[in-house]
Design brief:
The chain is mainly alpha-helical and 298 residues long. Helix content is 46%, strand content 9%. Helix 3 crosses helix 5 and helix 4 packs antiparallel against helix 5.
Length: 298
């Protein structure tokens, strides 16, 4: 209507032919070189479709006045932080749910903790280089074992409580339940919501959860290695633990874990960063699982 104020960049308009009932629309894909990279203008028979909305982003040969700049600034800052947060979350959910197109490197959430498949990002056929997103397999699988060990400890402690048998010192038990419980809960809420999503999913969606999986390695390391003598309430068991685990064993285990992960990182670095070309033998040597669909295997 004439009373509606049209503002550039912040107002959406439609151009509809009343005679034909067709709205102006353009395909998101640009024309090739012969079309100078322009977009083809066409008509859409459904004038109410969201793809028929247009916005004015530039008015050529016209300078914006100071009053208009002030008005636009008010428009941009008029929303409170909470309103912006709600709008942002809603738009992210909306656009994520729309990403349902099948992708050749998509994967299922159940495969992420086991690192069954990665993602190919870039290839150079001439130099036989590639960038393949893949976690550190050794560190990834150790974190899986840590999560499993924590779950087994919870079941074991509960079984001992049911039989009124104290096997773990109360202080050590409380520390494990607090730190390990928080880490396990954080891992759960960052991982399991993906099972309810219908969009295309990839390995990188597990990265936030993998941080907490690595933190569980630290919790289990402290429980089993740093203070192993406090695990047993009975003195006979404690003395047996001292005999089996000397004082420097925790340091040796720590150094071993770090060394193995660093070696694995260096071994897979050509795939992670595409720094050097590899022969088919070198590529197949890094294909530890059938799901590692690497390029240049032949």
């Amino acid at each position: 209507s004439n009373s509606t104020l049209l503002k550039t960049s912040s107002s959406f308009i439609r151009f509809v032919s009343n005679k034909h009932g067709v709205a102006m629309w353009t395909h998101p894909k640009k024309l090739p070189e012969w079309g100078h990279g322009h977009q083809e203008i066409n008509g859409k028979k459904d004038p109410t479709a969201k793809s028929t909305l247009w916005a004015i982003t530039e008015i050529r040969d016209r300078k914006i006045t100071a009053e208009e700049v002030e008005e636009m600034n008010k428009k941009q800052t008029g929303m409170s932080f909470f309103e912006k947060f709600v709008e942002l979350q809603g738009l992210m959910i909306k656009h994520n749910n729309a990403l349902t197109t099948v992708h050749p490197f998509q994967s299922t959430p159940i495969s992420w903790p086991l690192l069954l498949r990665g993602i190919s990002f870039w290839t150079d056929s001439e130099q036989r280089k590639q960038i393949y997103l893949l976690g550190n397999p050794i560190g990834w699988w150790i974190s899986d074992l840590a999560l499993l060990a924590f779950a087994v400890c919870l079941v074991g402690l509960e079984a001992c409580d049911m039989r009124n048998y104290e096997i773990v010192d109360a202080v050590v038990r409380r520390h494990l339940l607090r730190s390990g419980g928080f880490i396990a809960f954080a891992w759960f809420i960052h991982y399991f919501p993906f099972f309810m999503m219908g969009r295309s999913l990839f390995l990188h969606h597990y990265l936030p959860a993998s941080i907490f999986a690595y933190m569980m390695v630290a919790a289990c390391f402290q429980f089993f290695c740093v203070h192993p003598y406090q695990l047993f309430a009975l003195r006979s068991w404690s003395s047996r633990a001292r005999a089996l685990l000397p004082s420097y064993s925790a340091s040796l285990i720590f150094v071993g874990l770090v060394a193995v992960q660093v070696a694995t990182f260096v071994y897979f670095a050509p795939l992670s960063y595409g720094t050097s070309s590899m022969t088919p033998e070198q590529v197949n040597g890094r294909r530890w699982l059938p799901g590692f669909d690497l390029h240049f295997q032949k």
